[in-house]
Amino acid sequence: MTPADLSLTVLHAVRRAVDDGALRVEVPPRVTVERARPGGSGEYASNIALTLARPAGRSALDVAGILQERLRDAPGLRDVEITGPGFLNFSLRRDAGAELVRAIREAGGAYGSGAALAGTTVRFAGPSDLTESRASVVTETVVRLLRMQGADAGFGGAERMHVRPGTYDVDALGVDAARWALLRPAPQDRPLDGPPLLVQHERNSLFRVRYAHSRVRRLLVNGGQLGLLPSYEGGADVTFGAAASHPRTTELLGVLGDHPVVLLAAARHRAPDRVARHLEAIADALLAFQHTVLPLGDEKPSAAHRSRLALAEAAGTVLAGGLSVLGISAPDRI
């Protein structure tokens, strides 16, 4: 279950509570779900009960209890707890990682797309030369993000992006480095210095993201040489073996699950820099996880290795898709 799936699940619980008369409120258009913070429990949490308490004329704890009852048997959820003044905390089933990997594999580069902004129309002022104007590059990327979420977005209107100016010589930097330099900082911040983005070093954020993708491609090749292929055998019982509860596995699953939420937030806030920063987080988690994927020493290939390879493949898919959203290539080898 991804955060986007969880958000819809909670929204459905609110709608059921309204339909059966347990709550007298307007059903909100969406429910915010975030990673659980220190002091909470489970993997994710939502403040929806606190949001609905006043219009419902009830305490947040009462509202949380009503929603908890309607969420206990939801697919993908292992437990729903109430903490603090009325926060809902969600623990996912142990096979949630396999479900996430499967969802990414099925969606491919479209993972994270949705219909949350369907019915929304956005028109920006026409773009100028995309090779020189930062505002044009940012606006063109925002249009792509909006369309991925179902919005009718394009040019020919009056809305403009408020972007700090910046231009680059694409012939000197190349399209990929130039676009990263313009898109990675927040629109109101100064663009990145271009030449360092051409250096293959871990301090180069663009290099880390693209290198992480290339490492996935190499893991798949090396796995094939060992007779290992990404596998989803066993359906919901697929496990990652001893690595399942390892912090590196948990972190990678977490950032992959957050990807749809990040794409939607980037579209809503006209902020493609959020996508770039999230790709860095995925790359860092993947590079830490990669050492657990293939057998080491005398270790024999197993179903757990195939599952870890599948998780690495999913991360590579998300990295490639995210770079594509930014108009940047994802080479198989660096």
Provide the fold topology.
Elements: H1 3-19, E1 34-35, E2 44-46, H2 48-56, H3 60-69, E3 77-83, E4 87-92, H4 96-107, E5 121-124, H5 134-148, E6 152-155, H6 170-173, H7 175-183, H8 205-225, H9 247-268, H10 273-289, H11 303-325
Parallel strand pairs: 5-6
Antiparallel strand pairs: 1-2, 2-4, 3-4
Helix pairs in contact: 2-3, 4-11, 5-9, 8-10, 8-11, 9-10, 9-11, 10-11
What report would you give on this structure?
The protein has helices at 3-19, 48-56, 60-69, 96-107, 134-148, 170-173, 175-183, 205-225, 247-268, 273-289, 303-325; strands at 34-35, 44-46, 77-83, 87-92, 121-124, 152-155. The protein is α+β, with helices and mostly antiparallel strands and 334 residues long. It has a four-stranded antiparallel beta sheet with strand order 1-2-4-3, covered by helices on one side. Helix 8 (205-225) packs antiparallel against helix 11 and helix 9 packs parallel to helix 11 (303-325). The longest helix is centred in the C-terminal third of the chain and has 23 residues, at 303-325. The radius of gyration is 22 Å and the shape is flat. The two termini are 33 Å apart. Residues 234-238 have low confidence and may be disordered.
